[in-house]
Amino acid sequence: MRFASFGAGAGIVATAGIAALDPGTLRPLSTDFDTQARWVLTRLDEVLAEAGSGRAGILHVECFLAGREFFGRWNSWYAGHFGPDAPARTTLVCELPVAGLLIEVQALAVVG
């Protein structure tokens, strides 16, 4: 089954959850947090570009982590990716739907 990468309307784009999963098997592309974090941030940029937006248009990012132990590394990845003017974000620790999945992100952004 293929899912939409984003939904858009009224000048706003909402991404679907972005996770480092193989689309054919729905298994994690890696068991390493740093690899998954890099992948989701790169894919976030791609999805926003497809929707006619980009990093500068992001209003809010939500991140879901599989454990508290990843929070410090996630902070480093986020700061490195977005720089000093990083968008507002919420980070939650929760059980993710696929074993081995360590991070998932979604974002809300303006188009244009």
UniProtKB/TrEMBL annotation:
InterPro entries: RutC-like_sf, YjgF/YER057c/UK114. GO terms for molecular function: deaminase activity. SUPFAM superfamilies: YjgF-like. Transmembrane segments: none annotated. One of its GO terms (cellular component) is cytosol. Pfam families: Ribonuc_L-PSP. PANTHER family: 2-IMINOBUTANOATE/2-IMINOPROPANOATE DEAMINASE RIDA, 2-IMINOBUTANOATE_2-IMINOPROPANOATE DEAMINASE. This is RidA family protein.
